[in-house]
Amino acid sequence: MKRVSYQFCRALVPAAAGWLVSLPVVGAGAEPAARPGLSEPVGVGDYLQTLGGLLVVVMLIFAVAWFMRRMGGLQAGPGGVLRVLSSMPVGQRERIVLVQVGTEQVLIGVAPGSVRLLHTLEQPVEAEASQEAATGFAERLARAMRRMP
């Protein structure tokens, strides 16, 4: 075990003593007299004010995140011309995506720095089948929870 140096203890004891003297006495009726060179003690109200400010900032962050998720960020809404029907990973960073453009459906390959047309479908895939295959995590979790006893 490492020994604490004598100089460190000599510096720490007066600092700790000064801190203890500056603490307010709980239950004392009168305010402590101001001493020159010592700052005013921190009270419970100061802690509550800091905690309240922190909670407001955290709530604001969550509100902005909820709003961005609800509005879809900066993406086009469902009324747009393009719609991703399904997506499937084929590697660590490569995907095959089925996209509907108007009434036409195309299969594209997406990789870092590259997007390629793989195939244009002559007969569109039914929307119900493609949406069922591309269910999100929330839907899968809800189904799994319903199956639990």
Polypeptide structure, described:
The protein is of the alpha+beta class. The protein folds into two domains: 6-71, no CATH class; 82-147, no CATH class. The protein has four helices and four strands, in the order H-H-E-E-E-E-H-H. The protein has helices spanning 6-22, 44-71, 127-133, 137-147, and strands at 82-89, 95-101, 104-111, 114-121. A hairpin with a 2-residue loop joins strand 2 and strand 3 (104-111). The longest helix is centred in the middle third of the chain and has 28 residues, at 44-71. The relative contact order is 0.06. The mean pLDDT is 75.
Strand content: 15-25%
Number of helices: 4
Query: How many beta-strand segments?
Result: 4
Whole-number tally of structural domains:
2
* Topology order in helix (H) and strand (E) letters: HHEEEEHH
Question: What is the CA-based Rg, rounded?
Answer: 32 Å
Please state how the strands of the largest beta sheet are arranged side by side.
1-2-3-4
Question: Unreliable runs, pLDDT <50, ≥5 residues?
Answer: none
The shape is elongated
Helix/strand/pairing category:
alpha+beta
- Span of the ends, CA to CA: 54 Å
Percentage of residues assigned to helices: 40-55%
The whole-number mean of residue pLDDT values reads 75
Q: Tell me the major beta sheet.
A: 4 strands, antiparallel
Question: What is the secondary structure topology, with strand pairs?
Answer:
Elements: H1 6-22, H2 44-71, E1 82-89, E2 95-101, E3 104-111, E4 114-121, H3 127-133, H4 137-147
Antiparallel strand pairs: 1-2, 2-3, 3-4
